[in-house]
């Protein structure tokens, strides 16, 4: 049912609402007509909701990219304080609505995940984040944020969708009664996924789980969460995915029959060349793990994603 779909905060203009500075909307067809079939959207326009009119003067970001000022292009008025106050208030409200992620308007001074910041006289600019986007990343770190432009990049789109469900699982872990057993079980199911994003950080997370010196369970979970977020924030490239798949396949090496090993190697090579989607290779590996009754592989979220996650990943 729709109520069970991922809830995603979306810049209202991307849904077609006419709230941009020039009074227009910016309906995004992929977001609305493709992802919208499997997601529930929570519309948001930080500039309008902070009290600005439609239409309104353009706003540019100035000075420090880490904490820029939002300055009206015509009036020179500094909107920064009002925008930041609104962001803190609205993010508190949004946390109660339990969103899974955010898709925000690219290049927007409020929503931009990556936006130009004027740092001095002339045309010198540096990359920064819109004021609302930066506040969301800082105060709701378990919620992945992407721009609508990023959804048209296959790698970024896949990474965003995977993080939607991965961060959801982490939030569910942290919302329960913390125990070492639950953390160990969680990591065992996330192992291949973490390897596909960063083998080095995945090993560091494993050490936190296994370290007997950390007696404080809250501290153990906090350290693990930090590493999990760091790892999932790193892009899962084809090369790293292939290493994770190869590691999973090595667990089945004795169970592969006849030409199955060659079939898997061929599928991996076709994935490397971009001729086959990752899910096709994972489905092949999962099929053989199921036949062999390999419970550890069958428990991996990497091989057995949530049905909705699979649907979103297959949309292309």
> How many strands, what sense, and barrel or not for the largest sheet?
4 strands, parallel
Query: Could you give the order of strands across the largest sheet?
Result: 2-1-5-8
> Roughly what fraction of the amino acids lie in strands?
5-15%
Mean pLDDT: 93
Tell me, briefly, the overall form. Answer: globular
Report helical residue fraction: 40-55%
Q: Please give the domain count.
A: 2
Query: Could you tell me the number of beta strands?
Result: 8
Distance between the termini: 22 Å
Q: C-alpha Rg, in Å?
A: 22 Å
Spans with pLDDT under 50 lasting ≥5 residues?
Answer: none
Helix and strand element order: EHEHEEHEEEHEHHHHHHHHH
Provide an overview of this structure.
This protein is an alpha/beta fold and about 325 residues long. It folds into 2 domains: about 150 residues, no CATH class; about 160 residues, no CATH class. It is built from 13 helices and 8 strands. Strands 2-1-5-8 form a 4-stranded parallel β-sheet, with helices on both faces. Strands 4-3-6-7 form a 4-stranded mixed β-sheet, with no helix packed on it. Helix 1 links the parallel strand 1 and strand 2. Helix 6 crosses helix 9, helix 9 packs antiparallel against helix 10 and helix 9 runs parallel beside helix 11. The longest helix is centred in the middle third of the chain and has 22 residues. It starts with 6 loop residues before the first strand and ends with a helix. The mean pLDDT is about 95.
């Amino acid at each position: 049912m729709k109520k069970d779909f991922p809830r995603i905060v979306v810049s209202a203009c991307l849904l077609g609402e006419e709230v941009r500075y020039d009074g227009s909307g910016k309906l995004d067809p992929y977001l609305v007509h493709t992802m919208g079939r499997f997601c529930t959207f929570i519309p948001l326009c930080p500039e309008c909701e902070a009290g600005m009119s439609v239409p309104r003067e353009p706003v540019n970001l100035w000075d420090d990219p880490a904490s820029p000022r939002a300055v009206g292009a015509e009036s020179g008025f500094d909107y920064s304080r009002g925008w930041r106050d609104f962001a803190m208030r609205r993010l508190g409200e949004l946390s109660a609505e339990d969103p899974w992620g955010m898709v925000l308007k690219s290049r927007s001074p409020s929503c931009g995940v990556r936006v130009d910041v004027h740092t001095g006289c002339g045309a010198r600019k540096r990359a920064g984040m819109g004021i609302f986007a930066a506040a969301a990343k800082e105060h709701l770190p378990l919620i992945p944020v992407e721009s609508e432009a990023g959804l048209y990049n296959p790698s970024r789109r896949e990474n965003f969708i995977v993080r939607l469900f991965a961060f959801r699982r982490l939030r569910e872990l942290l919302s329960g009664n913390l125990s070492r057993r639950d953390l160990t079980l969680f990591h065992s199911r996330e192992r291949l996924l973490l390897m596909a994003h960063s083998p080095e950080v995945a090993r560091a997370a494993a050490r936190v789980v296994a370290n007997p010196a950390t007696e404080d369970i809250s501290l153990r979970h906090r350290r693990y969460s930090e590493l999990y977020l760091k790892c999932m924030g790193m892009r899962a490239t084809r090369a790293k995915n292939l290493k994770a798949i190869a590691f999973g396949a090595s667990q089945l090496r004795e169970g592969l029959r006849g030409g199955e090993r060659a079939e898997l190697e061929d599928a991996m090579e076709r994935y490397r060349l971009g001729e086959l989607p990752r899910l096709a290779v994972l489905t092949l590996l999962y099929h053989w793990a199921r036949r062999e009754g390999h419970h550890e592989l069958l428990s991996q979220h990497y091989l057995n994603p949530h049905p909705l996650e699979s649907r979103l990943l297959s949309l292309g």
